[in-house]
Amino acid sequence: MQKYLTPALLLCTLLSLSDAFCTAKDDVDKTWHAVGSSWRNSACMDCTCDGCCSAYGIPRGIPDDCVSVFDWKACDYIVHKKDDPTVLCTNYARVGK
């Protein structure tokens, strides 16, 4: 009986460890994450073990005197006046997120 108990316990231990991580890794960062966790990868995607989606909205209908620039640190678009980057534009819509 003992010769069957040890392999059975080892198998149960290995199975419980295999459930501690997602079955698929983050293809962008090549990282594994715990079940139930969420994270933001280096491509500005919000992820769970079920998949990833964009962490930002894409500006649409930007006024002609404005321009959108993506900020990789903030994972967001900054929309500002073309001739003065210190003046933010607010009259536009966002698609996504």
Uncertain spans, ≥5 residues at pLDDT below 50? 4-19
- Residue share in helices? 10-25%
Average pLDDT reading: 82
Q: Please count the helical segments.
A: 1
C-alpha termini separation: 57 Å
The proportion of strand residues reads 35-45%
Class computed from helices, strands and strand pairing: alpha+beta
Q: Could you give the count of β-strands?
A: 8
Domain tally: 2
Largest sheet: 3 strands, antiparallel
Order of helices and strands: HEEEEEEEE
Gyration radius, in Å: 23 Å
How are strands sequenced across the largest beta sheet? Answer: 1-2-3
Shape: elongated
Main location: secreted
Family: Belongs to the beta-microseminoprotein family.
Keywords: Disulfide bond, Secreted, Signal
Pfam family, one: PSP94
Provide a brief overview of the structure:
This is Beta-microseminoprotein-like. Belongs to the beta-microseminoprotein family. The chain has 97 residues and is of the alpha+beta class.
